[in-house]
Structures are given as structure tokens and as C-alpha cells.
Amino acid sequence: MLLSFSITPLGVGESVGEYVADAVRVVRESGLPNRTDAMFTTVEGSWEETMAVLKAAVDAVQARAPRVSVVMKADIRPGVTDAMTAKVAHVEARLRDG
To answer: Where is each Thiamine-binding protein domain found (predicted)?
Structure first.
């Protein structure tokens, strides 16, 4: 399962980087494959693993922010592993091959 999410602290001012860093730190310490870009963080694992990471990341932000917004999207495909890199590699190969 791939789980992509964005966690936004509300009520803390315009600069939210330090709060987002708290969430990303939780994700990286989880040991699950993950990737963070400008909009989302994606983790790969079982339903239970990915949801536990999401909750822990939200909890980390909520510990310092009065309100938290979460946007998430999941790709649930039992039996598939390494989807995070395989999906991108498949597209890159098609781009190379024309």
C-alpha cells in the first residue's frame, strides 16, 4: 500500500516548516520506505503500518499546533511491493523509449 499525505498545522502563523519537519522526522524514523516532496510525503507498507505512521506524524504536529489539517490518498494493491519506485521507473522507461 502506498499512502501519500500532507499534514498542515493551522493557527501557528505563516511559516510552518518546523512543524512539517516534526512530521517528516516521524516518517523517516518509522523505517518504512518513504519519499517527501514539496506537496506530499509517501510511505509504503501495510494498512496498519502506514496508518500508524500517519497517526504518529499527526500527533507530533498536534503536540505543538492548535489545529491540524490532513489530506491523504492511498493506493491499496495487495501483494505489490516496492510500488513507490517501480511505478516511477515504469514511467521513466516509457519516456526513454519514446
So the answer is: 4-92
CA dist., res. 63 & res. 58, Å (int) = 9
Sheet with 2-10: strands ordered across: 34-36, 41-44, 2-10, 67-75
Could you read off the pLDDT of 67-83 as tens digits, one per residue? 999 999 999 998 888 99
Q: What is the 3-state secondary structure (H, E, C) of the chain?
A: CEEEEEEEEECCCCCCHHHHHHHHHHHHHCCCCEEECCCCEEEECCHHHHHHHHHHHHHHHHCCCCEEEEEEEEECCCCCCCHHHHHHHHHHHHHHHC
Under a CB-based contact definition with an 8 Å cutoff, are residues 24 and 17 in contact? no
Domain boundaries, the chain: 2-97
- The fold adopted by the segment(s) 2-97 is Alpha-Beta Plaits (3.30.70)
Q: Specify the pLDDT at position 98.
A: 79
